[in-house]
Amino acid sequence: MAADPQTGSATAVEAAGAAPAPAAAAAASSGAGADAEWVAPAREVVEAAFAAAGVPLPEDFEVPPGTDVTVLSKKQLRKLIKKGGAKAKSPEELAREKAEKKATVEAAIKANKAKAKAKAGGKGKAVVLKLDTPEGEKKDMSEEMLSGYHPRAVEHAWDAWWSKKGFYTADPKAAAEAGEDGRFVIVIPPPNVTGSLHLGHGLTCSIQDALCRWHRMHGRPVMWLPGTDHAGIATQTVVERRLAKDEGKTRHDLGREDFLKRVWEWKEQYGGRIVDQLKHLGVSVDWTRERFTMDESLSVAVTEAFCRMHAKGLIYRDTRMVNWCCALNSAISDIEVDTLELDKPTRLSVPGHDPAKKYEFGTIISFAYPVEDSDERVVVATTRLETMLGDVAVAVHPEDPRYTHLHGKHVVHPFNGKKLPIICDDVLVDMAFGTGAVKITPAHDPNDFACGRRNGLPEVVILNDDGTMNSECAQFAGMRRYDAREAVQAALTEKGLYVGTAPNKMSIATCSRTGDLIEPMLKPQWWVNCKDMAERATAAVRNGDLTILPDMHEATWYRWLDDCRDWCISRQLWWGHRIPAYHAEVDGEVSETADRWVVARTEAEAKTIAAERFGVSEDKVTLKQDEDVLDTWFSSGLFPFSTFGWPEKTADLDGFFPNSLLETGHDILFFWVARMVMLGLELTDTLPFRTVYLHAMVRDKYGRKMSKSLGNVIDPLEVINGCPLAKLHAKLEAGNLPPKEVAKAKAGQTKEFPEGIPECGADALRFGLLSYTLQGRDINLSIGNVVAHRHFCNKLWNATRFAMNAFEDYTHDTPTDSILGALAAAAAAQGSTTVADTDAAVEAATAGTAAVAAAAAASSADTDVSAVTAALASASFASRPGYKAPVGSTGPITVDAPAAGGKALVLAPRDRWILSRLNAACRSTELAMRSFAFAEACSAAHHFWLEDLCDVYLELTKPVFRGEDEAAKHAARLVLYTCLDRGLRLLHPMMPFVTEELWQRLPGRGAEAAPGVPDPESIMISTWPLPVKGMDAPELDAQMTRAMGAIRSIRTLRTQASLRPSANADVILTVTDAEARSVLETFAEDISTLGSTDNLRIVDAAGFKAPRGCAMEVADDAIVALVNLSGLVDTEQELARLSKQQEKKQSAVESLNKRMEGAGWDKIPEEVREKDEEAKRKLDDELAAISKAIALMEAMQKAAATEE
C-alpha cells in the first residue's frame, strides 16, 4: 500500500484496495484537484475504442465519469456494458453527487488521519493519562488498559513503589551468608556532580540494572550501591564559569570559604537532578546506602588511606614534571588531557591570551647558539621556541663526528649570557634527526627533565602558574607565553640567530576542562609510588584471579601497568579532599626541607608528631595545612570499600566486600579501574572485585564523540520524556558555553533533531542502548532506533490486551503453579524432546569469571519445575507461581496434565511450537546474560515476542478463540498465559516498567498461588524463567520453519498482486516428497490462517497442471506455492500503477547514481554518503520487487488473452 507523501498514511483509494483509474491518475499527475470536472470523451472516441476491441456499442451507452475507455480490455468493456454505463443526470444530481463525493473524500481523509494517529500511540487524541498515584503507593491495576502504549502513564509510580517496598534494599547478613559466589554486589561508577547524566551514563545504568534484576530474579541477595563523585576539577571549573558569567567574579573574589559554599550549593542542586534521572531510568539501586565521595565517612577513609600509604613510604613529596593547566592554575591527570592533532601549520586561539588573536602551531623553528670563543654556531630546533629561555645545555650524541671537537665546550645564551654546556647523551639524541643537536630545558619537557637528572643539570622554571613568563626571562618577563614566543623569534632574527620555520606534524596536549594548552611544568607535588602495586595488579590478571571482559582490553591493562609511572595525586584546587599534610614551623624557623611536612589524620596528631620529630614542645610548633586537594581518582579508587564503612569493620563491609563485578566504560580502565585494584590490594589485601566488564563508548549516529559544542550530548530525560528543538536550544543558551560554541551546537541540534526528540520512555531507551552493546564496538546511537523500540513496547501492550480478552471470565481447577509443568508434560508426551545441557558452553564462555561462573554452576540451563509444582496445592487459573525453587533443583516433572471438558490436555502443533520457541528464548537469554552479551539477550527476547509470539502465534490463535472447540481454547489459553508470564519476566531486566505494568494485569495478581505461598508482589522478585525440560521440540521447530516458508511465499504472491487482506484467494501447495506433505498437513490450518485462504490444497507435484490465473513462488526445494488470482486482479490497472511506480523509482535511482558517480563524491561527508548508499540499496530492492510483480501481471494478462 502506497503512503501519502504528506500524511504518511494510506490514500483513500488504495485503502479501499483498488488502484486509481488511469484518468484519475492522469488528473492527479497534472495537478488536478479532487473537485476537477470530468469531461466525457467525444462519441467517436468511444466508438473507436469499442470497435478496436471488437465489442458492440449500445446506442444509449454513456461513459461513466472518470473512466478512460481507450485503455480498457475487451473483458473490461463487456463488464462496463453489463453494468449499464452512466445514465444521464440533471445538473442538480451532478452537483449533489459532487458534494457527496467531496464529503466522502474528506471523511475518508479525516478517518485515515485519526487511524494513523491512533496507530502512533494516540497522538492527537485527548488521551487521559492517570498520573495521580500517591508517592510510594502501588498503582491501581483495576483501571481499564489504555488503547495504546503511553510511556509516561506506564512508568508512573513504579520506581517509588519498588523502593518503598524494600525491593532495592540489600541485607548484609543474607549477603554474608550467601558468600561471594552466592550474592551479587556492584557499585555504580559515581557520576560527576557537574550537571546531569548523558547517554553514556544511561548505558552504564542500563547494563548494571539488567544484571541486578537478573541476579535478583535468580534468588541471590543483590546490592547495587549508588553514589556521586565530587569531581574536583570538573566541578570547580563549572562553578567558576557560572560565577564569571552570572556575577563577573572569580573564586579569588569570594575567597576559599565562600566559594566552597557555592560549590556545595551546586552539588545539592545537580546531585538531586542526577538522582531524579536515575529514578526515571528505573535503576534498582539501594537508595538507603547512597554515597557522595565527600561524605564524612568517605572523607575519613580518604585520610586514613593517605596516612597509611605515607607511613609505608608509598606516598611521598617531590618536585617532578606534571601536566599544568595555566587556566586552572593546577596540575591535571592524564585523563583530563585531550590531544589535538595538527597536520599542517594552524593558527589557534589560546585561553588567557588576546581573544582576537591567533597563534601559529604545527611548525618547527630552528635557531643557532654561538659557541663560546668561536665563530661556530650549533643549530637546534624546537616547536616551543619560548622554552629556549629555560635552556641549560645543548646535547649531542657522543659518537656523532660532527660535534666531537665540541665535547666539553659551551654555547652562549643570546639573552641572559649564560654559558650552556655541550653534553653527550646517547639516550636522548638521535644523530639522524635534524642537526643532531638538541636544546635541553629540564623544567619544561619530560624528556629533557630525564636528561637533566641523568646529567646533573639545573632546572630553570620560566613560567608563572598563570602562564606568563617569570623573572628568569629577562626582557620577556610578564609576557603571555605565546606572545613571548613571537617576541623571542623577532629578537633572534634581530641578532642573526634565527634560521627558519618549517611545517611540522605534531600533537598538542589540551585541557579537557578549559581548552588551554598544557604546559609540562616542574612542581613540588605529592606522589604515589605505584611500582609494587602495579605488579600485583598485573599479576592478578595474568594469574586469572581478576578477569577483564572483553579480554581484548587485557593488552591495555598490561601496557599501562607494566610500565606504570608514579602518580601525581595533588591538585592546586579548592574543591576536594584537603591533603592531610601540614608544613611545620619550629620555634619560628621556616624551612622548605622535606622533613618539615608532617602527615597526620588531624592537626592535633600532626602537632604531636612534629614536636617529637624536632624535639620541641608542641607550643613551639606552628602548622599550616597544605592548600592542595587530592586527585579525584584517589578517593574514587577507594569507592568499592570506603562506601561500606572501611576502615571500620562493619556489617556492610562483611556482607558486600569484595564486590562481585565492576562495570564501566573502557576509557577509564587505567584511571579508575586499575587504581581501585591497586588501592584495594594495598589497603585491604583483597581484590575489590573478581570481574571487570568494560562497555564501549556511546557516540552519535555518525560515530562522533558526544560533545556539548557539537550539540549532540543528550540527557536521557530528553529521550524518555521527549524534548522540542526550542527547548534543546534553550538549554544550550542557559549553559556555560561561549556564544560561538552555542551557535555551533544549535546548528548541530537542528541538523540532528529537526523536529526535536520524540517521547520514547525509559524502557525503549534502555532496550535501545543494550541492543547496541556488541562487544568491542563503539555505540553509534540513533534516536530513530530508540523510537523503534518504543513501537516494540506498543506491540507488547497490544499483545497483552488481546490476551486479556482471551482470558476474560475463564477459570478451571488446575493450580497455576502446575500449568508450566502440565504444559511441559503434555509437550513431552506429544513428541517434544529435551535439548542437551549447555552448561559446558556457558562455563567456556565465562571461564575465569568467579561471579558469573558461579551463576552458571548454580543454575542449570535446563531446569525442571518439580520443586515448584510439588510444593503447591490447588488454585484457580487466576493464580500464578509464588514459590521460588532452589537454584539448580533437579528431578522429574511429576505434574499430571490438567483436564479440560473431561478430556486430557492436547496441544496443537502451534502450541508445542511456541512453547519450544519460548524455551529457546529462555535458554538464549540466560546464556547471553551469563556472558554479558546484552545485545544477544535483547535480540533473543525481542525475536520471541515480535516474530514468534505476535507475528505468528497470536494470529494463529485468533480463529481458535473465535471458534467452538473448547479443548483447543483451553490449551491455547494455558499456552498464551505461560508465554506472557514467562516472556514478560524474560524482558524485565531490560524493560522494567512496561513488564511490571503488564505482568500486574495478568489474571490473579495478589492471590495466593497456594496456601501459605504468596504470589510475588512484583515481577522483579518473581523467578527468572529458565528453560524447562520437556518443552523443546527441535523437529517441530524445523517443520514450522518450512511451513512459514510456504506462508511467506503465499504472502509474497498476494503482495505482488496487491490483493486486499480480505480477498480470499485459492491456494495450492505442491510437494515432491512425503516429508514435505507431512509438514504442510500438520500445519495446514495455520497455513490457511496466515495465508488468508479458505481453500488450501496440498497436491503432489508430479503430473500436476496449474489452473490458469495462478501465480507461482518456490518456497523451498520440495514445496511450491500457487495463488489463484483469477477474478481478483485487474491486470491492466495493476500494470499501469506498477509502471508508474517503476518509472518514479528508476528516476530516483538515476538521480542517486548521477550524484554518486559525479566528481567530488569522495569529499561529501561520510554520513551523507552512507545515507545515499542505503537509499540506493533500498530502491534497488523495491525495483526488483516491482519488476517481479510486473512480470506476474503480464503473465496473467497473457494467459487471459490465450483463454479468450
Automatic annotation (TrEMBL):
One MF term from GO for this chain?
Answer: aminoacyl-tRNA deacylase activity
Cellular component per GO, a single term: cytosol
Q: Which reaction does it catalyse?
A: tRNA(Val) + L-valine + ATP = L-valyl-tRNA(Val) + AMP + diphosphate
In this chain, the stretch annotated as Disordered covers 1-36, 1140-1177
Domain of life per record: Eukaryota
One GO biological-process annotation of the entry reads:
valyl-tRNA aminoacylation
Q: Where is the composition biased (Low complexity)?
A: 8-36
Q: Does the keyword Ligase apply?
A: yes
Domain Methionyl/Valyl/Leucyl/Isoleucyl-tRNA synthetase anticodon-binding intervals = 911-1068
Q: What EC designation does it have?
A: 6.1.1.9
Read off the InterPro entries from this record. aa-tRNA-synth_I_CS (IPR001412), aa-tRNA-synth_Ia (IPR002300), Anticodon_Ia_Val (IPR033705), M/V/L/I-tRNA-synth_anticd-bd (IPR013155), Rossmann-like_a/b/a_fold (IPR014729), tRNAsynth_Ia_anticodon-bd (IPR009080), Val-tRNA_synth_C_sf (IPR037118), Val/Leu/Ile-tRNA-synth_edit (IPR009008)
Q: Which PROSITE patterns match?
A: AA_TRNA_LIGASE_I
Compositionally biased tracts (Basic and acidic residues):
1140-1157, 1163-1177
Q: Where in the cell is it found?
A: Cytoplasm
**UniProt domain Aminoacyl-tRNA synthetase class Ia: residue ranges:** 159-782
Q: Which keywords, in A-to-Z order, does the entry hold? A: Aminoacyl-tRNA synthetase, ATP-binding, Cytoplasm, Ligase, Nucleotide-binding, Protein biosynthesis
- Similarity comment: family membership: Belongs to the class-I aminoacyl-tRNA synthetase family.
Report what the protein is called. Answer: valine--tRNA ligase
Q: Native species of this protein? A: Cafeteria roenbergensis (Marine flagellate)
The lineage, from the top, is: Eukaryota, Sar, Stramenopiles, Bigyra, Opalozoa
